[in-house]
Write a structure and sequence with these properties.
Layout lengths: L12 H8 L8 E3 L8 E5 L2 E10 L6 H14 L4 E12 L5 H18 L2 E10 L6 E11 L23 H16 L4 H8 L1
Parallel strand pairs: 4-5
Antiparallel strand pairs: 1-2, 2-3, 3-6, 4-6
GO biological process, one term: protein maturation
Protein name: PurM-like N-terminal domain-containing protein
Pfam families: AIRS
């Protein structure tokens, strides 16, 4: 990668693999960084800690709710119970009010309570470097070694069970951000499905 300009979105997987190849190893890390690996797993004997970090940059609507739920989902995908959450909240100078910060914290608290998760720390900051609120969440979960789903047994030809629709999260975000424009093109029934 000679070009210093990257497109918007995730970094190129080949470039990431190059970066990962130079990282040090720890024998207790069962699942470390890698393409398609959404959380790390650390061996603590009979139990494992599952750790996930994910930023919410695509929307400011329901920011706290999305941060908790997206991180919790990635923990649960490895068979672990999400238990502890840390949140870093970066706020723009313009448009930040006590009411906005309280609303975001209420979203985090409500989402944590609904899932039995404790908010255990984080960081808040008003900075000129962002134009809208951004939250980076870190979720920590735990699972017994026997119940860990680390993906190492997945092979070509395995069946996939889809329990809900595809792109539910993305569809909801698009609705939150562009509902007025969508009203011009979609029925009320379809808009209701997008919203919920």
């Amino acid at each position: 990668m000679e070009n210093n300009s990257f497109p918007i979105g995730k970094l190129d997987p080949r470039f990431l693999e190059e970066l990962f190849s130079s990282l040090s190893d720890d024998k207790r890390v069962i699942v470390g960084p890698g393409i398609g690996k959404d959380a790390a797993v650390i061996d603590f004997g009979k139990t494992c800690l599952v750790v996930k970090t994910d930023p919410i940059t695509f929307t400011s609507c329901n920011l706290g709710w999305y941060s908790v739920n997206i991180n919790a989902n990635d923990i649960a995908c490895l068979g672990a119970a999400p238990r502890w959450f840390l949140a870093t909240l970066l706020l723009p100078r313009k448009g930040t009010s006590e009411a906005l910060v309280k609303r975001i914290f209420e979203e985090v608290n409500s989402a944590c309570q609904a899932l039995g998760i404790s908010l255990i720390g984080g960081h808040t900051e008003v900075t000129p470097r962002v134009a809208h609120p951004i939250m980076v969440g870190e979720m920590i979960g735990e699972v017994s070694r026997e119940k860990l789903i680390d993906g190492s047994g997945v092979k070509l030809g395995d069946a996939i069970l889809l329990t809900k629709g595809i792109a539910i999260e993305g569809t909801s975000v698009i609705y939150q951000e562009k509902s007025e424009k969508l009203k011009e093109q979609f029925s009320d029934k379809m808009l209701s499905r997008m919203k919920n």
